[in-house]
C-alpha cells in the first residue's frame, strides 16, 4: 500500500443487498465487500460495465442508501451513525455528487444562480463577499459570470451546467466529489474541457474525486487510482498505470481486449459478458481458491478468488 497517504475517507467491507418484491422477494447483491481509501487531491475511477455496482457505491458514500454490511469512515466516524439533522448537513457540506444529467439537478423554473443561493443559505460558507466568491468560482471553471448568472437552465448547455456544479463544489470546498458518468451526456470537445477542469480543480483544491465510468480510456486519462468492478465485487485496484499496464484479473483483461480503439467510447448497451469471460473468471477463482485479494506489486491488488 501507498505510504504517507492522506486519507479523507475509508470504505471498509461495504456490501449492499437489495430486496425487491414482497411475496417472492428477490435479492440482488449490488456491491460485496468493497474496500478502498479515498485520498485528498486524488481521482479514483470506478470502472465496470452496466450493473456492476458502481452507482451503488456512489450512493452509499452519499448516504442515499444504507449499507447491508461494512462501513464508511469519515472524520473518524462511521457515516451510518450520522443521523442528526445538523450533522447530516455538515456531511453534505463536504461530500457532494454530480450526476450524468445536469438538467435534472436544476429546477427549470429558477435561474441557475439558485444553486449558489441554496448553498449560501444552507451552509455557513466562509466568504466575505458572496457575489465575488461566486464570480471567482465561475472563472475557475472557465465560465463567464456575466453570461452565466441570471440565465435559466435551458439557456445553458449540459457542459456549462456541469461546470456550474463543479463551481458549486469548489465554493463549498468539498472533500469528496462523486462524479457519476459525469461527462457521458457531453459531446467530445466539451468532455475534454470538463475532464481537464476536474483534474485541475482536484489538484488545486485538494478535492478527492470518485469518477464513475464505463469508459476505460477516460479512466486512464483522468485517474490516479483505478478500481475495476465486476458483478458487485472489486476485482482489481491500484495505481492506474499499473492496473492498465499489467491487468491481471480475467475480467479486467477482457475489458482491455474489448476496447476496440483508443478514443472510442464503450457502448453500455453492448454485450460485455460473453460466456467465455464468465467461465474464465470461474476457473481463475477455482485455480486460486483461498487466496482472496492479493497485492501483486506495490499499489496494485487483484481478487484471485471470491472465497
Ligand atoms: N433500488 C434497487 N433495488 C433493486 N436492485 C437494485 C437497486 N439499485 C440497483 N439495483 C441493482 O444492483 C445492481 C448494481 O446496480 P448499479 O446501479 O450500482 O450498477 P452500475 O454499475 O452503476 O450500472 P450503470 O452503469 O448501468 O449505472 C444492478 O443489478 C441493479 O439492477
TrEMBL record:
<dbReference type="InterPro" id="IPR003439">
    <property type="entry name" value="ABC_transporter-like_ATP-bd"/>
</dbReference>
<dbReference type="InterPro" id="IPR017871">
    <property type="entry name" value="ABC_transporter-like_CS"/>
</dbReference>
<dbReference type="InterPro" id="IPR027417">
    <property type="entry name" value="P-loop_NTPase"/>
</dbReference>
<feature type="domain" description="ABC transporter">
    <location>
        <begin position="9"/>
        <end position="256"/>
    </location>
</feature>
<dbReference type="InterPro" id="IPR013563">
    <property type="entry name" value="Oligopep_ABC_C"/>
</dbReference>
<dbReference type="Pfam" id="PF00005">
    <property type="entry name" value="ABC_tran"/>
</dbReference>
<dbReference type="GO" id="GO:0016887">
    <property type="term" value="F:ATP hydrolysis activity"/>
</dbReference>
<dbReference type="InterPro" id="IPR003593">
    <property type="entry name" value="AAA+_ATPase"/>
</dbReference>
<keyword id="KW-0067">ATP-binding</keyword>
<protein>
    <submittedName>
        <fullName>Peptide/nickel transport system ATP-binding protein</fullName>
    </submittedName>
</protein>
<dbReference type="Pfam" id="PF08352">
    <property type="entry name" value="oligo_HPY"/>
</dbReference>
<dbReference type="GO" id="GO:0015833">
    <property type="term" value="P:peptide transport"/>
</dbReference>
<dbReference type="GO" id="GO:0005524">
    <property type="term" value="F:ATP binding"/>
</dbReference>
<keyword id="KW-0547">Nucleotide-binding</keyword>
<keyword id="KW-0813">Transport</keyword>
Amino acid at each position: 500500500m501507498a505510504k504517507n497517504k492522506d486519507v479523507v475517507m475509508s470504505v471498509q467491507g461495504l456490501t449492499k443487498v437489495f430486496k425487491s418484491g414482497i411475496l417472492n422477494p428477490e435479492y440482488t447483491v449490488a456491491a460485496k465487500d468493497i474496500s478502498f481509501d479515498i485520498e485528498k487531491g486524488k481521482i479514483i475511477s470506478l470502472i465496470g460495465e452496466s450493473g456492476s455496482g458502481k452507482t451503488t457505491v456512489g450512493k452509499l458514500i452519499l448516504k442515499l442508501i444504507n449499507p447491508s454490511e461494512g462501513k464508511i469512515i469519515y472524520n473518524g466516524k462511521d457515516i451510518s451513525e450520522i443521523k442528526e439533522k445538523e450533522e447530516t448537513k455538515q456531511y453534505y457540506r463536504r461530500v457532494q455528487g454530480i450526476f450524468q444529467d445536469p438538467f435534472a439537478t436544476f429546477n427549470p423554473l429558477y435561474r441557475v444562480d439558485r444553486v449558489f443561493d441554496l448553498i449560501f443559505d444552507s451552509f455557513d460558507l466562509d466568504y466575505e463577499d458572496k457575489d465575488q466568491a461566486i464570480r471567482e468560482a465561475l472563472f475557475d471553471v472557465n465560465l463567464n459570470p456575466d453570461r452565466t448568472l441570471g440565465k435559466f437552465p435551458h439557456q445553458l448547455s449540459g457542459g456549462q451546467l456541469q461546470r456550474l456544479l463543479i463551481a458549486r463544489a469548489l465554493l463549498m470546498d468539498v472533500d469528496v466529489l462523486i462524479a457519476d458518468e459525469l461527462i457521458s451526456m457531453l459531446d467530445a470537445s466539451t468532455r475534454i474541457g470538463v475532464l481537464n477542469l476536474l483534474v485541475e480543480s482536484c489538484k488545486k483544491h485538494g478535492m478527492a474525486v470518485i469518477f464513475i465510468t464505463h469508459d476505460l480510456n477516460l479512466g486512464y486519462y483522468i485517474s490516479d487510482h483505478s478500481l475495476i468492478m465486476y458483478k458487485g465485487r472489486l476485482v482489481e485496484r491500484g495505481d492506474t498505470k499499473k492496473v492498465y499496464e499489467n491487468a491481471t484479473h480475467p475480467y479486467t483483461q477482457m475489458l482491455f481486449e474489448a476496447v476496440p480503439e483508443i478514443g472510442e467510447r464503450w457502448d453500455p448497451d453492448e454485450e460485455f459478458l460473453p460466456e467465455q469471460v464468465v467461465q474464465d473468471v470461474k476457473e481463475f477463482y477455482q485455480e486460486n481458491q483461498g487466496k482472496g485479494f492479493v497485492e501483486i506489486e506495490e499499489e496494485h491488488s487483484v481478487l484471485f478468488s471470491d472465497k
